[in-house]
């Protein structure tokens, strides 16, 4: 096996490297879903408080990313997808990432508590803890259910946004949580199918490694089927309505089609077209989640105008 460490690109750290530690792509999802949670809440929030809240939620998401990169630096240097990250590439020292993550964690939680409320701050603190300790340090390297249980970390941001506005948790915020929670497994298993041997080389017990690729294909289909009533059912909560219902039906049909096509394939067919179906379904899963939350945001605007919802 070729050691990916042979491809390390050493050099001094730049501003971009420290930004990369915060996982900006993941942070963008955190910011968007948290913003939707805040804006669809029935309690109006002052614009200054809203902007400050989203900023501190983003910092908390970035803190989680930095701490995750610090802990996973040993396996990141083995996996082709992650070997160019700042720590395995030798541009940032692990202790720098640890310090950055801890400082941003403290700042983000404390400032969110002061800017919004301590319920939201407590949820943010728990989210950081869950992602770093429960998922990264424990589940990721010990069980093929890592992404199933660990996916909860990525599902908390809309609940935090909702709590910033309302000071609490409700059926609607749990519905948004469940959308992301149920979406995460088929999303990541689609990625795992075309990442080839990355996870096995790094010793990460992803489902594709422990139970085989056929089992992963079946799990993708099953979880996508289970996700569908969650997605469509959200239309009949207080944050739903006709716009969201139409979006959820169309997007769920597309995701189900992709999951079905993945399930029918064998490895020979997948190898022949370089996992085109798996890659396409993975990309669509991103559009799927963004589309659902965009539809919720549209419903929120309509609700505030007195035009949305079923009542």
UniProtKB/TrEMBL annotation:
It is an enzyme of class 2 (transferase). One of its GO terms (cellular component) is plasma membrane. Carbon 2 of the heme B porphyrin ring is defined according to the Fischer nomenclature. InterPro entries: Protohaem_IX_farnesylTrfase (IPR006369), UbiA_prenyltransferase (IPR000537), UbiA_prenylTrfase_CS (IPR030470), UbiA_sf (IPR044878). One of its GO terms (biological process) is heme O biosynthetic process. Its EC number is 2.5.1.141. It is a multi-pass membrane protein. This is Protoheme IX farnesyltransferase. The keyword Lipid biosynthesis does not apply. Pathway: Porphyrin-containing compound metabolism; heme O biosynthesis; heme O from protoheme: step 1/1. Pfam families: UbiA. The chain crosses the membrane at residues 26-43, 49-71, 97-115, 121-139, 146-169, 175-195, 216-236, 242-263, 284-305. It is found in: Cell membrane. Keywords: Cell membrane, Heme biosynthesis, Membrane, Transferase, Transmembrane, Transmembrane helix. GO terms for molecular function: protoheme IX farnesyltransferase activity. NCBIfam families: cyoE_ctaB (TIGR01473), PRK04375.1-2 (NF003349). Belongs to the UbiA prenyltransferase family. Protoheme IX farnesyltransferase subfamily. Interacts with CtaA. Converts heme B (protoheme IX) to heme O by substitution of the vinyl group on carbon 2 of heme B porphyrin ring with a hydroxyethyl farnesyl side group. It catalyses: heme b + (2E,6E)-farnesyl diphosphate + H2O = Fe(II)-heme o + diphosphate.
